[in-house]
Amino acid sequence: MPKRSDEQLMSDFANNDAKAFELLYARHKDAVYRYFLRHISSAEIGAELMQDLWVKVINAKVNYQVKATFKTWLYTLAHHRLVDWYRRNNLESKAFVENDSDDEIDGSIDWNPEDELQTKRLAKVLKQSVNQLPFDQREVFLLHQEAALTLPQIAKMLDEGLEKIKSRYRYAIKRLRMSLEKMR
Fold first, then answer.
1. What's 100's DSSP letter?
2. Mean pLDDT across the stretch 122-136?
3. CB 88: neighbour CB atoms within 10 A?
4. How confident is the model at residue 143 (pLDDT cuts 50, 70, 90)?
5. CATH for the stretch 1-98
6. CA distance to 9, 63, 75, 117, per residue, from 66 (Å)
7. Whole-Å CA distances, 184 to 86, 92, 116, 121, 125
8. I need a surface site. Which of 77, 146, 152, 153 has the fewest CB within 10 A?
9. Integer Cα distance of 68 and 3 in angstroms
10. Following DSSP, what letter does each residue of 57-75 receive, concatenated?
11. Burial, 48: exposed, middle or buried (Cβ in 10 Å; 0-12, 13-18, 19+)?
């Protein structure tokens, strides 16, 4: 049996196929959660935003129409939920970092403590640098990197011109490179 597309799964879910929702959720939950965490850096708030997002997906099932890819639609909902959260908390799209703890890195046979330390430092600098990007640049960068959306999909999703989105992405990459180069 061929793998069902996200759009087909959402249509099946609209026809009360609970298994279809489970498959959609399993496919997208980790990436969407990372998307929220990259903006908020709080596991608790990220989990709250995730729950709100998936409730919106469930509530939208009867009105869902395929006008874009499911992924684009999902991240549009996620983006709106994030913007609402910023507005409600008067944060003006500035991310905060609640916990800078380093994630554990899996060991390997060729483990080298100096390499691991350098990798952790780079990851921390990159995370901090992403958090310091202006909201518009961070949004485009994360949608492209975390959600694997193309720049044209992001432009359509955000209702912006493609050149503007390309420019935001280029500026984000330039800033991130400069931050990493300072570490050398």
1. -
2. 78
3. 8
4. confident
5. 1.10.1740.10
6. 11, 10, 14, 46
7. 34, 32, 16, 11, 11
8. 152
9. 19
10. HHHHTTT---SS-HHHHHH
11. middle
